[in-house]
Write a structure and sequence with these properties.
By secondary structure, this protein is an alpha/beta fold. It folds into two domains: 148 residues, Aspartate Aminotransferase, domain 1 (Alpha-Beta Complex); 230 residues, Type I PLP-dependent aspartate aminotransferase-like (Major domain) (Aspartate Aminotransferase, domain 2). It contains 14 helices and ten strands. Helix 2 runs antiparallel to helix 9. The longest helix is centred in the last third of the chain and has 36 residues. The protein is globular. The protein starts with a helix and ends with a helix.
Length: 389
């Protein structure tokens, strides 16, 4: 490589993701407010303001939501707050990020791995019903895969029919997944790579009476802060954890909220344009995630393509490697193939998830992608066209 090429960003690796975090200059007013208040954690004024904005945005009262340090702890504390018996069987999709399953294990339960829909790549109420006929199920954690929203009325109906609590792992779905007027529980991530980035953080929303309040208490070690609770304020009411959102992360989230609508529009436009470009480059041989019954993806943060077979994926990976383009096999290997999980999960039929694991490839996708970067990816796809058939 020549010195000129080394200095040319076109010849750098095309990154898989670039976090859409606020600049230090944008953050400064929020940080100055935090410092003036001398309140840095423990449900400070910025966390309170952020929760008030979430309350308005989701159309729920404040008592039905709480922030947490991250979505993984949010899932763990929701499972604890549900008071499931230890060793309960919790249905999760085999095709998901490991944190969905590890949260179940850390809460003292058994993940039961189910299949996903071959088109929208999600655990659906229909699949969950089949799982209930096949084995004992005590709760369900569907995942909003790559941010695609679920039909909450369908899951509400499932809850009513079965009596099983449903908790949506909506980690990647802020802005896409809503309550939709249904009775349900949602857990969002505010990680740096998500559509509303706070660096780290999470949000729990639940219409289940008292659940969000209990998660809030558990996130503060389990300490009682309610003077009307029948025990002294500061007494330990339950065995909790330290899972509070800090004022620093609330400041970042508030700054991110200022531009969220505009950036969500940009993400949708980029996704539509880039998918069309890659369709043309591949001869329309790439398969994309289909919209589920819950509606459209409003703020995409990842772009995954499904190839015809495993060999086609390997060929495209090779071309991307040659072109200095980062790609990733998201959610792979499947949960049951992870050594740390293999002995603690129960596995149902996962034929569609197995096929996804053999053919899915995550492509670069981030705001600020240059035309040069997009052209490099198109070239890699185009030169792989004969292998994609």
């Amino acid at each position: 490589m020549t010195a000129r090429e080394a200095a040319d960003p076109v010849h750098d690796w095309v990154p898989l993701l670039v976090p859409d975090m606020p600049s230090p200059q944008t953050l400064m007013p929020w940080l100055e407010r935090m410092h003036a208040a001398r309140h840095y954690s423990n449900f400070g004024p910025l966390v309170k303001e952020l929760e008030e904005r979430f309350s308005l945005g989701f159309g729920v009262p404040l008592e039905q939501l709480t922030t947490v340090a991250n979505a993984t702890l949010g899932l763990e504390l929701v499972l604890q707050a549900l008071d499931l018996p230890k060793g309960s069987h919790v249905l999760v999709p085999a095709f998901t990020f490991v944190a969905t399953a590890t949260a179940v294990v850390r809460a003292g339960h058994v993940p039961v791995l189910a299949d996903v829909d071959p088109d929208c790549w999600m655990l659906t109420p229909s699949i969950a019903r089949s799982a209930c006929h096949a084995t004992r199920i005590d709760a369900v954690i569907p995942v909003a895969t790559f941010g695609m929203p679920h039909d909450m009325f369908a899951w509400q109906q499932f809850e009513q029919e079965t009596g099983l609590p449903v908790v949506i792992d909506a980690a990647a779905a802020y802005g896409s997944q809503s309550l939709q007027g249904a009775q349900c529980t949602l857990v969002f991530s505010l990680h740096a790579t998500k559509s509303l980035p706070a660096g780290e953080g999470g949000l729990v929303i639940s219409t289940r009476p008292g659940l969000a309040a209990r998660v809030r208490q558990l996130s503060n070690f389990g300490i009682n802060l309610d003077p009307d609770a029948g025990m002294p304020v500061g007494a330990l009411a339950d065995i909790g954890s330290n899972a509070k959102m800090s004022e620093y992360h609330a400041a970042i989230a508030l700054a991110s909220l200022q531009v969220w609508e505009d950036h969500a529009r940009q993400r949708r436009a980029l996704q539509a344009e880039f998918m069309a470009e890659l369709d043309e480059s591949s001869g329309h041989r790439l398969v994309w995630q289909a919209q589920g019954a819950g509606g459209a993806l409003m703020a995409p943060s990842l772009l995954c393509a499904r190839l015809h077979n495993q060999a086609a994926r390997q060929a495209l990976e090779h071309r991307c490697q040659q072109g200095r383009i980062m790609v990733r096999r998201w959610y792979q290997p499947l949960l049951q193939q992870m050594p740390a999980l293999a002995s603690v999960v129960k596995v149902l039929d996962t034929c569609h998830a197995d096929e996804l694991a053999a053919t899915l490839l995550g492509m670069p996708f981030f705001l600020g992608m240059t035309q040069a970067q997009r052209k490099l990816i198109q070239l890699a796809v185009s030169t792989s066209k004969k292998d994609l058939a």
